[in-house]
Protein: FGGY-family carbohydrate kinase
Amino acid sequence: MESYFMGIDTGTNSSKGVLINSHGEIIAEYTTEHAMTNPAPGHYEHDADKDWWGDFCIISNALIKNANISPSDIKAVGASALGADCLPVDEQCRPLRKAILYGIDARATDEMEQLTQMYGEEQIRNWYGRPLCSSDVMPKILWIKNKEPEVYEKTHKFLTGSSFITAKLTGNYVVDRFLGLASFNPLYFNDGTPNPETCKPICRPDQLAEVKEANDIAGYVTEKASQETGLAVGTPVIVGTDDSGAEAISTGVVAPGKMMIQFGSSIYMILGTKELVDDERLWREEFIVPGLCDISAGTNAAGSLTKWYRDHIFSDCVKLETENGIDAYQTMMDGVADIPLGSDGLITLPYFAGERTPINDPLAKGILFGLSLSHTRQHMYRSALESVAYSVNQQLNIMLSHDVPIDQIFAVGGGVKNELWMQIVADVTGKEISTPKITVGASFGDALMAASGIQYPGFESFDKLTDFIKPGKTYYPDMDHHQAYKKYQSIYDALYPATVDLMHRLSE
Structure:
């Protein structure tokens, strides 16, 4: 009998799942969408029961049905979810409020200042290698303690997305070392045990999940979870990780010099390094793969920016999709390739939801700079695509300034379907940008790690997982275009410093 492995990833706007066989081939995949709520400026939330667990159950049942296999043939399950969220749950793993999302949620700015004053800037930099930012969970927990004390008092555990899903599957509260030690820093010691001293002003040590490796077995599918997911009782479930970590594994980031750029609702970049590299503009942590470190970076807008254009500027394309089934994003590209490089002098700052790296400013604002009466919506859209490429290049240049090698760049996520966008990124950066043959990303990484978690033959180590990662298309930079883009890159780099004071005045 063939063996199968399930991977399901929960993202900002959708959840995706795959079933792979023992040859690493996808035999079924399924996607469902959900909504992100924005109840107040800088506040972004998910309904964990509906959007996280509900999606997991829908996808799990659909994969089993569509593949027409017995649940008992699924030998292991892996789940990932958008990382650095904060979800308080009670003793029955019932959410006590909606989940506070990752770095896109900027509600805890007062708490970041409170913690910085409490510990001092030097201690914060010793812990993080940078100032506190909106991607850190500690300020989010403190926000709940300060603003919602009744929720805080009832909290049994503070979880992130993958921890919640794994707990619903197995009854065990775990978080992987990569996500736990980086996002919940400094609430854990480096060995993964809670640090009572650093926890004292934030939460009780017992309110934290147990730290394990991402592909360790977290537990086994319970009777209740079996009824909801269609999985067989007793199926092994790995600890899992965040979506970006799983996506990086799906592209072979298992050694120094290997890099992933995730084109999802936001951009997330992970570069494998030999050791930790401190730069307050970026992040660093010990990666999922034992012995490997990474430099990472994250924007707040990429797919969320193109979605904003779809919904508000190209709403007629959405109507056409409803009428004739042609994807709205495909129609939006009509004429965009004909717009000259640099969008006829139109430059976008894509800070529509504040920004994480490299500026760490939740109050940053989006800008369309250089608008004239001759510009069309096609100019605006191309400028938006170029702006994401400028952001990627800006952060690549910071990484390269530390003399770390970048041998291979794999782009993954929904954005890679836009071939012009990928070519723009190659031209702006001057780097080859490859896409893997299997582009579903994080859920594929989850399935690979699930197989490795039970030591299935051929999947035993992270190095062996690369045998199942095949190259797809490579975009080669046009170096003449690269030189021409340098002018626009320099203007992009100068726009934020020139306008930051005005941005902050708008937020007063």
Q: What stands out?
A: Residues 488 and 494 are 10 Å apart (CA to CA). The longest strand covers residues 14-21. The chain has 18 helices and 23 strands.
